[in-house]
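Entry 14. Ran structure prediction on the chain below.
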Amino acid sequence: QVRLVESGGGLVQAGGSLRLSCAVSGALLRLNFMGWYRQAPGTRREFVANITSGGTTDYADSVKGRFTISKDNVKNVAYLQMNNLKPEDTAVYYCNIPNWRGANYWGQGTQVTVSS
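Output, structure tokens:
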């Protein structure tokens, strides 16, 4: 059974930093494409960043230069380092493995709140 568990969210002032973690069990990050998404109240879930099995990364324009996605293939944990946070970054953040043996997996989400 595949399980993704996010952690590291919290309340931070604008300009601050947080590091989110996504602990994966039942699937191997070294073999998988995975991503981070976020959803603010009343909005659609949106793409934040992704990383391929080989380590190539991509980011939404709104977070480029501020967020960094990475992974530890030994620990099987993915990370999202978020710097210079803005109030508009407030959302529930989810990690995702879109295709492991034909199925799409999401974590339960972690709340990030940025105060102005």
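The chain has no helices and eleven strands. Will compare against last week's run tomorrow.
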